[in-house]
Every structure is written in C-alpha cells, then in structure tokens.
Amino acid sequence: MTDSKPDVSPLSVPVRSQEEILRLRRQHLNPTLSVSYREPLKIVRGEGAWLYDQDGQAYLDMVNNVCHVGHCHPRVVAAGQAQMARLNTNTRYLHDNIVEYALRLNSTLPAPLSVVFLTNSGTEANDLALRLARAHTCAQGVLVLDHAYHGHSPSMIELSPYKFNGKGGAGRSPHVRVLPMPDTYRGLYGPSGDAGQRYGAHAWSAVESLQAESMAPAVFYAESLLGCGGQIVLPPGYLAEAYEAVRAAGGVCLADEVQVGFGRVGNHLWAFEEQGVVPDIVTLGKPIGNGHPMGAVVTTPEIAASFVTGMEYFNTFAGNPVSCAIALAVLDVIEEEQLQAHALRVGQFLLDGLRGLQQRFDVIGDVRGRGLFIGAEFVSDRDTRTPDPQRARAVVEAMKARHILLSTDGPDDNVLKIKPPIVFSQANAERFLDQLDEVLRIL
Ligand SMILES: Cc1ncc(COP(=O)(O)O)c(C=O)c1O
User: CA-CA distance, 369 to 353, in Å (whole number)?
Assistant: First the structure.
C-alpha cells in the first residue's frame, strides 16, 4: 500500500535522508535515544492504524498504544487546533475545559475516586502520586512489581526494577520492596485457582520486611496488566490480596493505567476493574491525549486533602485549555465510536488467531492478553519453556519487512507485544495473522 496524500510540511524544514538524520541525531542529540529496527524507519505521516514513510509506503502500526483512537484522528486534531487558535493559558484562570474534563473522567471511575490532578506525562503523574501517598500516610516505603516501569524521573527510576535492575541501573533503593510478577506461565506458581492469592501474599512479607527496617509502606504501585513485564494478565484475586496487605499496614494502593487504560482491555474501561478492586490512586498517561503530552492522577478526597499543606501545586502546562480540549475529544471518540467494545471484539479475534498459530508452531509457548493488549511468548522448547528472544526479534524484523510494526518485551525480551491503536480493525488483524503465519513457516 502506498500513500495517496503528499508529504507537505507546514514548516520549511529541509527533507533529509534516513542516513543523514541518523548521523545528525548521533552528533547532536542525546546518545541514549534508541531507534527501532536494524534499518530505522523515517515516518512522515499517520492515519488510523497506519504509518507512512518518506516514500509513501504504508506500515500497519501494532506498537503505538499512545495514538489510541488512531493516528491524527480528525476530531482530536480539530479540537486541538480550534482551542490553540483561541486560547492557551494555565490553571490560574478559570476555564470550562478543565472542569469539564475532571467531570467526564470522574464519571468513568468508581467512588471515591473523584479528585483529578492533571500532568504532562505518565512519569509526572506517578511522581505526583508518590508525593500524595507519602503526604497521606507519612510513610516512605514503596512496593512494586518485578520488571515494572513507572517512569523516567529519579524517583520513578527507583520504583522501576525494569530500570534499576537493568543496564546502567543502581539496584534497589532501601525504601523499595519488589514483589514477584504474578506470571502463571513461568513464575513461582502455575495457573492454579489460588495463584492470585499466593502471589498476592508476597505483599504481606514485603510489608514485614519494610517494618523490620523501621519503615512502613506508603504505597503499592502496580500496573493492572503488566506491560514491560511481558503483557501479563494478573490472576484473579491478586490485587485484592496485595491491597489488603498494604492497607492493613497503613499504605495506599495505586493502579498505573498509563498503558492499559481508556478501554484498551475491552472488557472494562479501566483494567483494574477486572480484579474487582478500587485503588486509592489511579495514574493515567499515553492514550489520554492521543499523542498530545498529558497525564493525570485521580484520587480520593481524603488523600487529596492530605496534600493540602499550604504548598501550592503549580504545573505550568498541565491542565491547559488545549490539552483538556484534546483529552475531551479523545473521550468523545472512544464513546461515539464504541472503541472499548471494538477492542474486545478485535482483541478476541487476535487471541483466537494467535492460539490457532500456537497449536501449529511450537515456538509460541504462551498467548495471553485482554482486548488489544496481547503478548505471544516465544520459546525454543515448549517443555522447558526456554525463552527464545532471538526468534522473537527475528519475527519483528521479518514482519517489518512485510510492513507490519511490532516490538518485543518481557524480562527475557521474548514476548511479542501487540498494542495497536484501538481502531485496529478485523481486516488489519487478519492481515497480521496471515503474515505471521507465513513468517513462522519460514523462520
Ligand atoms: C506503565 C507506565 N507507567 C508510566 C510510564 C511513564 O510515562 P511517560 O513516558 O509518559 O512519562 C510508562 C511509559 O512507558 C509506562 O509504560
């Protein structure tokens, strides 16, 4: 497929080759910026679930969980353009957009979650949440899940085993306790009915270990499905058990919905809902602005009140009228295009298709997920479940050659991650499954 729309830039930016851009990035930009694929792509336009390169070649985007309602959704673009042409200021003036957004967001969340703080990113949301939790509990300790990622600031790197135990990481900080991932495929406990409780019980011992060092838990951070952990679905009862342990010791519980919120998981708008719990704090990001930088924290009136110490919380850009207009348009599109139900339908079709492939190809050890948040785990031996990251990465490159964009993750980097914009269609899913079938036959 090629692009029918010419690449017309509104700016007079010189058009450079991929090689030239790479060279200039290496020379003048932060050297830790990574690029995807052996031969990086230069993408110049996006529409729906499609990205287009500088030659007009189309690529099916199965990676981007930020441009949630589709790349450059006209409704979202128009909302941002109109508000930008009218006014952009900060929260020190009264404006309708911010209160309307708070009302709309709150109407989707269970009581007592009803106080909204807006931020500019998921990291900022998680950072602010840590301050809220500490202000409320007067404690410092934090429980996190192994391999989790919660953001790039110093305090969030300390809460992200994905980073502090990874390359260049400084290891675990004294106030942090790491719980095992409740991975029923390769974790401590198999898929037994009580796996959720057994994994959740580790929160009790983590709390005791903090107390043994004269600390108490302020907060437990958990994604409601584990992203960097390898697209892991929490076993039933997991959060209920872990929340009980944390709350019994005076801590609060946070659901990081930065990757999995806003209907992606299909069965619910918020992924924590499947676990039957109500967190004390919910953090949001990525899809909230469909690519516009934004994040949010929603908490209870009690916790929010503990943050009222006399110190102002001012955030120059957060909650500005443009961001709120965009975020409102995202909620409108999710609702009007019934994208949550769509994610459930297409996600189920993908899961069924992947399970069909799993029956034919031994390299796929496990298929899991909810809605359009799916993982396929590659192994070199089904019985020993030996991770096969080389194969997973080879699949990603081979699919890219077929113009389908994917990525890998998980502790062993052997999980094919599927998290496209949720407008991803049944036809897109069929195309992906057909191409993956061919690639698996060849590789
Ligand atoms: C679960 C989770 N939380 C927080 C963040 C941080 O969000 P941001 O990159 O917007 O700062 C990320 C980003 O990848 C994430 O996946």
Answer: 13
Instruction: Mark whether 347 and 325 lie in a shared domain.
Output: no
Ligand 1: residues whose CB is within 6 Å? Answer: 121-123, 126, 149-152, 223, 227, 256, 258-259, 285
Atom of ligand 1 nearest to the CA of 151: 6
pLDDT digits (tens, 9 = 90+) for 364-390: 999 999 999 999 999 999 999 999 999
Asked whether the beta carbons of 252 and 222 are under 8 A apart, the reply is: no
pLDDT beneath 50: ranges in the chain = none
The per-residue pLDDT for 257 is: 98
Q: How many H-runs (helices) and E-runs (strands) does the chain carry?
A: 14, 18
* Domain housing 265: 75-336
Same domain for 255 and 403: no
Residue nearest to atom 2 of ligand 1 (CA): 150
Domains identified in the chain, total number: 2
Q: How far apart are CA 424 and CA 31, in angstroms?
A: 33
The enclosing domain of 288 has a CATH number of 3.40.640.10
Q: Model's pTM, two decimal places?
A: 0.97
* 95, 64: one domain: no
Measured in Å, residue 380 CA sits from the centre of ligand 1 at: 31
